[in-house]
């Protein structure tokens, strides 16, 4: 089977790792000229950890751990109000045992696949046009002018996928706004920085956070929920504009936010990885069309609010590869694509459900709402310290996210050899 994957992030290379072991020939296209080292914290949960174990990459994954020791809510002076230290095997902290930077995870997956004889990476290249998609093959024109033919095209190019836009009608893709915007970037580390994920609730629906990384720098985040139609329009327009407009809006909105806002804003001009993000979910009525299938955020971006984006990408890639590995020679991939969606969609739908009070509860608009939120989190942090509570949470989690990861004979046979 000849497979073309658009996107060298998390889902694409994971899919390639498993497909290559089933004998498929894979080409991965990436629009960037090289692998980008940028990105904020991501983590794995539940069955995604099992996928990494099946790939034999868990030790390498741990080597790239951010070394974040937990999450703490801080006041305007940076003093901790509600600490949630990480506890191995327990989810009593907002920090996961399996924290890694997105760029480091992409590098790890690239290293694990780039030398396989069945995998080819092509950087600085995109799909200009999907020429045909029929019973015989899927034909594409690349940005370099080449026209190539494949048995399967996998769109793993993110929630704003250009491949998806070409192949799937707009009415089949639902974009669900969460009413929240975020800006991420890296800033220099200072001597008084610590290894906690420090979270500060500013007033007027603003959040500022600082997180450590394993590279001697600090990852900063601003998030905001516009409270008026005019403010929403201003932020929406900025999301479609360039970096200068986004930086200007960020400085305007957070100039008086307090805590470390001046330091972070002063560093934005020099940030090598500035990223302005509209927080949205992607929901598709169907994930495949003949020989084209969507994977990861392209098909089912759950938004950072769920903490499940990376996990769904890893598990989905494993599931798709597994179902494709069951096809007989010459069999149309539509059978495997339908099985992948049938088996995985119920879990995706469950993970995309977000309570109606999120993310508003974490963006207090007034002082009394902030006091209420901080008090609630303080109580939670005290309860989390109780040994039997930690044990109960650990027992309830135990790498079980409610999804049973199937074993695929071809992958299991390869592992035993």
TrEMBL record:
Q: Which UniProt keywords apply?
A: FAD, Flavoprotein, Oxidoreductase
Q: The organism sits in which domain of life?
A: Eukaryota
One Pfam family, short name:
FAD_binding_3
Descriptive protein name: FAD-binding domain-containing protein
Q: Which residue numbers delimit the FAD-binding domain?
A: 2-349
**MF terms in GO:** FAD binding; oxidoreductase activity
């Amino acid at each position: 089977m000849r497979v073309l994957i658009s996107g060298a992030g998390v889902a694409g290379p994971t899919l390639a790792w498993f497909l290559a072991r089933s004998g498929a020939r894979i080409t991965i296209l990436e629009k960037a000229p090289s692998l980008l080292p940028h990105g904020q914290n991501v983590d794995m949960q539940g069955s995604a950890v099992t996928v990494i174990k099946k790939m034999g990459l868990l030790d390498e994954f741990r080597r790239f751990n951010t070394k974040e020791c937990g999450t703490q809510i801080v006041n305007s002076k940076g003093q901790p109000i509600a600490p949630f230290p990480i506890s191995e095997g327990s989810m009593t902290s907002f920090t996961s045992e399996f924290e890694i930077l997105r760029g480091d995870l992409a590098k790890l997956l690239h290293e694990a696949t780039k030398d396989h004889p069945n995998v080819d990476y092509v950087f600085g290249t995109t799909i200009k046009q999907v020429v045909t998609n029929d019973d015989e093959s899927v034909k594409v024109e690349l940005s370099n002018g080449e026209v190539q033919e494949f048995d399967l095209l996998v769109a793993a190019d993110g929630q704003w996928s250009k491949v998806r836009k070409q192949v799937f009608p707009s009415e089949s893709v639902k974009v669900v706004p969460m009413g929240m915007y975020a800006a991420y970037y890296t800033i220099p580390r200072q001597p008084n920085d610590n290894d906690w994920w420090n979270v500060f609730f500013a007033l007027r629906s603003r959040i500022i956070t600082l997180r450590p990384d394993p590279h001697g720098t600090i990852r900063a985040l601003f998030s905001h929920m516009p409270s008026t139609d005019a403010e929403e329009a201003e932020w929406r327009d900025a999301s479609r504009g360039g970096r200068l407009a986004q930086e200007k809006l960020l400085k305007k909105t957070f100039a008086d936010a307090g805590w470390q806002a001046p330091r972070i804003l002063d560093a934005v001009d020099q940030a090598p990885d500035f990223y302005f993000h509209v927080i949205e979910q992607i929901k598709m009525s169907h994930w495949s069309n003949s020989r084209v299938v969507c994977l990861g955020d392209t098909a089912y971006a759950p938004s950072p609010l769920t903490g499940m984006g990376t996990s769904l990408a890893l598990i989905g890639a494993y599931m798709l590869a597994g179902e494709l590995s069951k096809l007989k020679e010459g069999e149309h991939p539509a059978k495997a694509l339908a099985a992948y969606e049938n088996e995985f969609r119920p879990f995706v739908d469950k993970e995309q459900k977000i309570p109606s009070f999120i993310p508003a509860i974490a963006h207090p608009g007034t002082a009394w709402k902030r006091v209420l939120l901080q008090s609630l989190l303080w109580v939670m942090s005290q309860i989390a310290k109780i040994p039997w509570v930690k044990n109960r949470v650990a027992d309830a989690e135990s790498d079980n996210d409610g999804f049973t990861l199937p074993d695929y004979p071809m992958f299991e046979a390869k592992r035993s050899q």
